[in-house]
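Pipeline run #58 for the internal structure catalog. This entry was flagged by the ingest filter as a single-chain record with no existing model, so it goes straight to prediction. Upstream metadata was stripped on purpose; only the residue string is passed forward. Reviewer on rotation: M.T. Logging verbosity set to normal.
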Amino acid sequence: MTDGWDWRQPGASGVPAGQPGPGQPPAGTPMTAQQVGRPAASPWWSDALADPWRDPNAPTAVVIPAAPMPGTEPEPVSDPDAPGRSRLPQLLFIPLIAALLAGTLGGALGYAFAVRSGVAAGPVLGAAPGSVPTLAQRPPESLAGVAERVLPSVVTVRVAGVGGTSEGSGFVASADGHVITNDHVVAGGTGKASVIFNDGSTAAATVVGQDEESDIAVIKVTRGGLRPVEFGDSDALAVGDPVLAIGSPLSLANTVTAGIVSALDRTMQAGEPGGPTRYYAAIQTDAAVNHGNSGGPLVDSAGRVIGVNSTIKSLVADGQEAGNIGLAFAIPINQAKRITQEIIGTGKARRTVIGAQVGGPGSNTNGAGVRLAAVEPAGPAAGAGLRAGDVILRLNGRPMTEPTDLIALVRKYAPGSVVTVEYRRGSDRQNASVTLAADAK
């Protein structure tokens, strides 16, 4: 085997040294690059003539091997030490192409949907249609479900008076158009009012009757298709029960606020300067209530009205506008419903009394009960054996600490109700059953 050069010693070919060999030009004839053994375009060993390791006695002719005979081509030989061709690029190429195709298809579909939705560019915002529950799909016992049922029965009440227009809230109590609201909403008016329903429609109303001390008034609208509220039982409430207050606080109609029952039988007295003094054994709640909520319903988790929002507590000075601080009070619906029925039936409400007077000189008991200053001879207290000077400690288990407690709690019950009174006479403690009566007025 040879590398393409004839390295035999001179004379080995049978040609005398110094004579031209086969295929060489005569002496003195210039030789081409191919003839001197340096291929013109050889990609390797192009500097063969200057190679110091070249045999100077080797002939300058290039030995070109003869073409092999047909059928005698040598078998291809592969170098076993050569590194094998990796298949990793091929394995990565296929998923890359698949990912590109999937991305292109997804982009095309997204663009098509965006165009159909009226958005030509930019990301699609919001959840897919139908993935968020609509109001009709919300459970009826949820707050949204309760509000949806009660709102059509809640109204905004406007009454024109000498000093301007008074505005409050109310709710439909009967299908024939009776609406319950607060006395202080209609007080000072001309007897005419207007009612705005939650759909924005308006109807004229007239005042049927009102009770100053209980702060309940009834007006009536002439309109068909009214939806009265469902009444609950305020005596069945417990502290912590969830409630909703609905109305038009600060002229913002159809407002719903949530809270809980914070306290029961919260006794208090209220009233405007020069007006009547009102006594409440109220339902206390932390639902946000502001001016304009007056007369609106306080409802339980089943959507039943359990109170009439009436008053709030605030830290402002007299004459300043008060706002909600998480203390609001509602008239128990059992009391409000009874008074409403009496106003509708007779035009006025009866006032419940115990037949005794409290307060005055010597009434201080340091918070340990309420002392009776006088007892009417033929009144309920006298009939139960109570006397002037007796100290009422509890009424139906409710502790008495000041005169307001006894007055407000008695007004809560209907005439004819029997209550248990625990009292102290001297150092003795006794119990008596008192049948409450209606005021003679």
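catalog note: Helices lie at 88-116, 143-150, 183-186, 333-346, 380-383, 403-412.
catalog note: Residues 239 and 261 are 5 Å apart (CA to CA).
status: ready for reviewer M.T.
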